[in-house]
Amino acid sequence: MSRAPLALTLGDPAGVGPELSLKAWRELRDEDVCFVVYGDPAPLMAAAQLLDLPRPELVSDADEARRVFTNFLPVMALEPCESEAASAVRSIEAAVEAVKAGRASAVVTNPVSKSRLYEIGFTFPGHTEFVAHLTADLPMSGARGPVMMLSGGGLRTALVTIHTPLLDAIQSLTPERVAHTVRVVADALKRDFGLAKPRLALAGLNPHAGEGGALGREEIEILAPALEQLRAQGLTIAGPLPPDTMFHEEARAQYDAAICLYHDQGLIPVKTLDFHGGVNITLGLPIIRTSPDHGTAFDIAGKGVARPDSLIAALRQADAMVSSREAEA
To answer: How far is CA 114 from the centre of its chain?
Structure first.
């Protein structure tokens, strides 16, 4: 395998990230999905002892990582920081830098604690916005995000607003913002998922998608102008659709991705369909970034019981997206 490995961040060292990294390695070591963890080796060594797995191997480059991957989890060692939150940030920065320098092919991020990050002065709402900031200097083809997309259970949902209080999210909706999000999703589905002509669906905001204005006018005043503009540009998009009827099995078969207007509108259906295996994907970036769709789980960290399903899915998804970009190139 000549492709550069995936760069996996450590996440919060006190969370389940170290344990999940080793469990994912155990599952994937015989597959063609090589990854390297960027972070302080100590939490990984402790997790290996807990799980009775081989101690991770410190490596210095991508070639060495590929050589040892079948037998050991490769680690690019970073110095410990003054706090666990600072270590999590440093790991993200190092993984992104590795992709920018060509030493890694994509970034996969283990969970972090946003509240802990905020305590050390972290100014971004979450991973999505921080990775976008770190890659803002890179050129890219297609519309630039970031746009958060969740994938699981045969469903993809992308968000117009991300980590925004609900009232603020509704008040921030404009035809331009909705249309831009849809263009980012359409371009990413072509580039990263190999869909030549993506079929999209736009969720309404109000009950029954506004019922012709009787239950709210956002569908008429915001969503309809966005849809008119997008269809004029040749995109295939249905909507606005009543959110309570667009996620059942027959409805999902009609589109490749659903565009949702706020956080829970998009995350609840994915997590209901595939709570343990959902993947968070950032669209509209010059680099590929995926993540498991769960948090740090401090309450079970260090007990050996955390399920790696979502991280394994995120690693496989990142590898598949790298293949899609290579095929397009």
So the answer is: 15
Q: Is the bond preceding residue 207 a cis peptide, omega within 30 degrees? A: no
Contact between 198 and 149 (Cβ < 8 Å): no
Of 278, 218, 275, 280, which Cα lies nearest the Cα of 243?
Answer: 218
Per residue, the 3-state secondary structure of 57-89, as one string, reads EECCCHHHHHHHCCCCCEEEECCCCCCHHHHHH
Q: Class of 1-140+294-329 per CATH?
A: alpha beta
The tens digit of pLDDT for each residue in 111-131 reads 999 999 999 999 998 888 999
Cα diameter, the chain: 64
Residue 259 has pLDDT above 60, yes or no: yes
Element (H, E) at 258: strand 257-260
What is the rounded CA–CA span in Å between residue 162 and residue 67? 39
pLDDT of the residue at 32 = 86
The 10s digit of each residue's pLDDT in 290-328 is 999 999 999 999 999 999 999 999 999 999 999 999 988
Average pLDDT over residues 138-144: 92
Domain 141-284 belongs to what topology?
A: Isopropylmalate Dehydrogenase (3.40.718)
SS3 state of residue 302:
coil
Domain with CATH 3.40.718.10 in the chain: 1-140+294-329, 141-284
Q: Residue 15 and residue 53: Cα distance in Å, rounded?
A: 18
Residue 209's region, left for phi above 0, alpha for psi from -120 to 50, else beta, is left
* Share of residues in the chain with pLDDT > 70 (%): 100
